[in-house]
Amino acid sequence: RFKIIQFSYIIGVLIAYFVARYIAGPINTITEQAELIADGDLRADSSEKLLNREDELGTLSKSFEEMKNNL
pTM for the full model? Predict the structure, then answer.
């Protein structure tokens, strides 16, 4: 019984780690792009991988790209 709990805990930690990376990685990329734009550097392009996402992070990335192009 204890081994099942240990196994479940390890699986839970691994799932949490990968979900956090899936979310945090794109947020860090978008943050870096926002910092470049704030510094006046409009040459940085958004990652195609981010622009093609169909979730909130993709929408945010598209909005930053549109903002950059309109400046």
Answer: 0.71
